[in-house]
């Protein structure tokens, strides 16, 4: 039996710089779904708000949050969460996800900081996720993130991720580029990590480019084309778990939309090649 996903096909992170271009294309060539950071749009009025309403009426949207700070030490911002729920409902957002990290302490720290890989931290995050799901009235997904240090580590990254997903009973936003980046930076087998993930929890997939700082250091920038090794890891995910909705992230050095659509089409090509493995 085929798995049911909130979205289908190949997606793209929506940028304001090509919002009008996509709206003008009508039924032309475009991604199957789009992703936005809700914090960049909530409370916005004027032309951009009208365009987003038009856009969300025509194209499937998912939201990937930036500031929930799901692993942080401070209480959850429940006012923000209630505003977020209204925004998700207004734009018929198919899925909301956040990073498995934290971004606040006494204020916003404007970075994705690593959560200690400990049993206590896994319990802390899981309890916060359950509260978020109650307040939003929907399941959420957590993304496996890139990280560059592991303070206070008692568990492996994989064991920590699996513990949080099981205890929170939430979904996974599977970022294959982050698996590859972390495997280089922390010296583990990317294929083994991927193979151990709970496929039934995957909501959709991220793929992106990164920066090579040194032979043993990769920086997750979303600022370049996807490299062959990451494409191969995506192929492995399809072969092992079935074809899953997959979104291209590009946050820096953003090329013109037609060039981005070439990479979206590459996702589609690989999805087509992997369709024989679909669950």
Describe it.
- The chain is an alpha/beta fold.
- Helix content is 39%, strand content 18%.
- It has a single domain, classed as Divalent-metal-dependent TIM barrel enzymes (TIM Barrel, Alpha-Beta Barrel), CATH 3.20.20.
- The protein is built from nine helices and twelve strands.
- It has an eight-stranded parallel barrel with strand order 1-2-3-4-7-8-9-12.
- Strand 10 and strand 11 form a beta hairpin.
- Helix 4 (119-136) runs parallel beside helix 5 (157-168).
- The radius of gyration is 18 Å and the shape is globular.
- The termini are close together.
Structural class by helix and strand composition: alpha/beta
H-E order: EHEHEHEEEHEHEHHEEEHEH
Spatial order of strands in the largest sheet: 1-2-3-4-7-8-9-12
The CATH class is identified as Alpha Beta
Counted up, domains total 1
Cα(first) to Cα(last) distance is 7 Å
Which fold does the CATH topology refer to? TIM Barrel
The CATH homologous superfamily is termed Divalent-metal-dependent TIM barrel enzymes
Task: Evaluate the radius of gyration.
Answer: 18 Å
Mean pLDDT: 91
What is the annotated CATH architecture? Alpha-Beta Barrel
- Total DSSP E strands: 12
Coarse shape: globular
Helix content: 25-40%
What is the count of DSSP helices, taking H or I runs of 4+ residues?
Answer: 9
Low-confidence stretches: none
* Percent of residues in beta strands: 15-25%
Taking the sheet with the most strands, its summary is: 8 strands, parallel, barrel
